[in-house]
Design goal:
This protein is mainly beta and 128 residues long. Helix content is 13%, strand content 41%. It has a 4-stranded antiparallel β-sheet with strand order 1-2-7-6, with no helix packed on it. It has a 3-stranded antiparallel β-sheet with strand order 3-4-5.
Length: 128
């Protein structure tokens, strides 16, 4: 039996098998952890075997969607979703300062709170 020595061919075959497995009902196991702090919160996402380039994050109003797509390099139209998680963000999150960082196999989405959150404010009563 002759072994295949072309490593690029093996990588392409493995990617196609991965893509077909996902299309056939396979899933990428993900782990999500949410930690709350005084100045904000952090969503940590671990997804085994998912490249950092495959992650996508969409923020629309107070909804944050984290998902990943497995895309064929040979056929860009052929893609399959690996996972999809949606989070409804509380009103104290400063949506303009949300950021994401990928480090050592972990995606971290940082959700800072508004600076004035937690400080009482007296509301003036207007007389008509």
């Amino acid at each position: 039996m002759k072994l295949i020595k072309d490593k690029e061919l093996l990588k392409n075959i493995a990617l196609q098998i991965d893509l077909l497995n996902t299309l056939g009902g396979g899933v990428s196991e993900t782990y999500v952890d949410i930690k709350k702090y005084k100045k904000g919160a952090v969503i940590n996402v671990w997804a085994a075997g998912v490249d950092p380039e495959a992650f996508k994050i969409v923020l629309h109003n107070n909804n944050l969607t984290v998902f990943s797509v497995l895309q064929s390099k040979e056929n860009p139209e052929m893609a399959a979703p690996l996972f999809n998680r949606m989070f409804m963000l509380p009103p104290q999150v400063d949506l303009g300062r949300v950021e994401a960082v990928y480090q050592e196999g972990q995606l971290m989405v940082k959700l800072p709170y508004h600076e004035s959150t937690g400080q009482p404010r007296e509301i003036e009563i207007k007389q008509l």
